[in-house]
Every structure is written in structure tokens, then in C-alpha cells.
Specification:
globular, 11 helices
Length: about 375
């Protein structure tokens, strides 16, 4: 089945980063559906960490209505990520009430309304399509597995707020990184972290720390992108103290963490972490398609070895539909983080990375992102 996978739409972002709000961008995506039999929205479809779910749902409605019409009877698969984990949480909570529940495997297919009321609403808006929910991923082809990729956060060396939360929760649950061996294990550590952040955002807009603005500002400062004056002095102090802070976190048992926040290391760390998570879950051959890191690949200039997992596994990333200025250059399409990429999986052959917005300039994207 010819399948197009896209990830990280973040519809409803308070940053204005979700480029699929733009009719021009939606048209580009819908043009790419010609000849496609199935579309997979591979997680972080809604941005549920910036404020109440009703705001994200309202922002997402036009897109889902148009997508349902564009697919016209073809299949639409919805997968939850970390920013929209709340969409699948009601089903996860319900299954926990069973005695005992079936083991949570790599692919469970659900009717949208069974997963949650919010998923049911998305399916109603996209009624022109045949909608199904898959969690935590989908077997796209016998040799192609797709998942959002959020489990890689448990193995990241980049000290984000989420990664630190995972480190604390791992210690509280007694599940060390090297002991994670099933979907149930990953959910036991990650689920409480997601639930806490989702509950904070349920009733009102979140703070900069929880919405991600603080992380972006810190990356800018550590990368030397701050303004002059007092801000520059503050950035110098931050850069000087950051390695020591990371060392303290490692000594506290929350690592291993690294003080390297270069763009190259962000990419490489994500790929290493995804490879570890895949191996722990038994995915060791064929192709693993994931999103989450917002960086598509492999791209023509990438080192192939970085995109190899354990065994005979090859990693493929969808990229995102999210405008994040910190990773972009002034020239449209030049940065590998330029939004608007997808992965096309045919009945045979390697998955193909498509970059659908390479010629669309800054002014035609939503572009209000930090």
C-alpha cells in the first residue's frame, strides 16, 4: 500500500509555528496525495502542551476537514506522540483497569472513538477518510515500522526538561535505561512525565518553561545567538556554567548527559537514542520511520553510518511541519530543518524522503515561531 507519512504538525501551537494553518502549505501537501493510498500522521499532530486542548482542536479542525475530503475514502492513520499523548491516554488508562490487560505490543489498532473522545472528533472532521488510530506505532510494510519516536528521549544525552524528567522518573520506578525492554517499560517511565505536563496545560496557557520557549532561549544563548548588553553577559555566564551543571546532573544519576548542544550533535544524539530504543523493543532489521526530532533524513549529504541502528536496521526521519527559526537560515529550503518534509513508502524499495516546501519562502509560512 503506497503510504505517505508526515509527523510533528503541532497544530494549535501558540508560537504560530504550525505551517499547515496556511492554505498555501495545505495545498502543497494535498497535491502530494496523488496516487497515495494511505496517510499516516505520525504523532505530535496537535500541540497540547501550550494550552487547553480545545484551542488546539479548534485550530486543527479546518485541516482535518480538508484532509478528509482530499483522501476521499482512503485510509488515514493517527499515531500519538509526546506532545499529543493525551489523545491516547484515556485508552491506556482504560486498559490498565483490566485484570490483567493484554501486553502492549508495537502496534495496536483502535477505532478513534475507542481511543478517546478527542480522536473521535478528529475522525468525524475527517469523515471522508477511513480513520484508524495506531499506538505506539504502525507496521507500514513487513519490513517498515513507523512510530513517533518519543521513546528515544529516555536515551538522549541532550539535557532538556523532558529528558531530566525521564531521568527522575526512571529512578523512582526503578527502571534504569539498560533495563527497558518493552513498550510497557517505556510507558511506565514516560507516561507520568507526559501526564503531568498535559494536566498543567489543560485549563490555561503554560509558562515559557513548559511550552518550550525557555529551552529555545537557552539553546540560543549557549550557541552564541543572544543580543548585546546585559543579555550577552548573561549568555556568557550561562555558557561558562553549563558544563559544570551537566556534570552535576550526571553525578546525581540523571545521565548520561552531554554539554554539547551543537546542531550536529543534536542530530547525532537523536539517531543514537532512537537506535537504542529500537533495539530494546526488538526492532533490529528493515526500516524504522520516525519523527520527533524535526530533522528529516537521511539527506544526500548525511553520513550513512549515523542512520544505522542495531543489527540490519536503517533509520528514516520524516522531519516536521513546524517553523522553528532557531534552526533555519535566511535562504528558504537551505536548512535541513526547513519544514514540509514527508516519507513515502511504496510497496517495495527504500522509503523516500520528500521535501515539499523547499521553494516556499519565510513570508509564506506561519513564521511567528521563536
Amino acid at each position: 500500500m503506497r503510504t505517505l507519512l508526515i509527523s510533528d504538525l503541532h497544530l494549535g501551537s501558540s508560537f504560530g509555528a504550525d505551517v499547515l494553518r496556511s492554505p498555501v502549505v495545505r495545498e502543497r501537501l494535498f497535491d502530494a496525495l496523488d496516487g497515495v493510498e494511505r496517510v499516516v500522521l505520525l504523532g505530535d499532530v496537535l500541540e497540547l502542551r501550550h494550552g487547553p486542548p480545545r484551542d488546539a482542536l479548534k485550530a486543527a479542525e479546518p485541516f482535518f476537514r480538508e484532509l478528509g475530503d482530499a483522501l476521499a475514502g482512503r485510509e488515514l492513520v493517527l499515531v500519538a506522540g509526546n506532545h499529543d499523548h493525551a489523545l491516547v491516554e484515556p485508552w491506556l488508562a482504560e486498559r490498565a483497569q483490566l485484570s490483567p490487560p493484554e501486553t502492549l505490543g508495537l502496534e495496536t489498532l483502535l477505532e478513534p472513538g475507542r481511543a478517546s473522545g478527542a480522536y473521535g472528533r478528529l475522525a468525524q472532521w475527517a469523515a471522508g477518510a477511513q480513520v484508524v488510530v495506531a499506538y505506539p506505532g504502525l507496521r507500514v510494510r513487513e519490513d517498515v515500522y513507523a512510530t513517533h519516536g518519543h521513546y528515544l528521549d529516555l536515551h538522549m544525552t541532550v539535557p532538556t526538561i523532558e529528558r531530566l524528567g525521564m531521568g527522575v522518573m526512571g529512578r523512582l520506578t526503578g527502571l534504569a535505561q539498560h533495563e527497558l525492554a518493552s513498550v510497557e517499560d517505556y510507558e511506565a517511565v514516560a507516561g507520568p512525565v507526559y501526564a503531568w505536563r498535559d494536566s498543567v496545560a489543560r485549563s490555561r496557557p503554560t509558562s515559557e518553561a513548559l511550552s518550550g520557549i525557555t529551552t529555545v532561549k537557552a539553546w540560543r544563548a549557549l550557541g552564541g545567538h543572544s543580543a548585546g548588553g546585559l543579555q550577552a553577559l548573561g549568555a556568557l555566564a550561562l555558557r561558562a556554567g553549563f558544563p559544570a551543571a551537566v556534570g552535576a546532573l550526571n553525578r546525581a544519576g540523571l545521565g548520561p548527559l552531554s554539554a554539547d548542544l551543537s546542531v550536529g550533535e543534536l542530530r547525532a544524539a537523536g539517531l543514537r537514542a532512537m537506535g537504542v530504543a529500537a533495539a530494546n523493543l526488538g526492532v533490529r532489521e528493515g526500516y524504522l520511520v520516525f519523527g520527533h526530532t524535526h530533522r528529516p533524513g537521511p539527506l544526500p549529504d548525511d553520513a550513512v553510518i549515523e542512520w544505522l541502528g542495531a543489527g540490519d536496521l536503517r533509520l528514516v526521519n520524516t522531519g516536521s511541519w513546524c517553523y522553528s527559526a532557531i534552526f533555519l537560515t535566511s535562504r528558504p529550503g537551505e536548512s535541513p530543518y526547513w519544514p514540509g518534509s514527508a516519507v513515502l513508502v511504496d510497496e517495495q524499495g527504500a522509503p523516500q524522503v520528500l521535501r515539499l516546501l523547499q521553494d516556499v519562502g519565510h513570508d509564506r509560512l506561519v513564521g511567528a515561531a521563536p
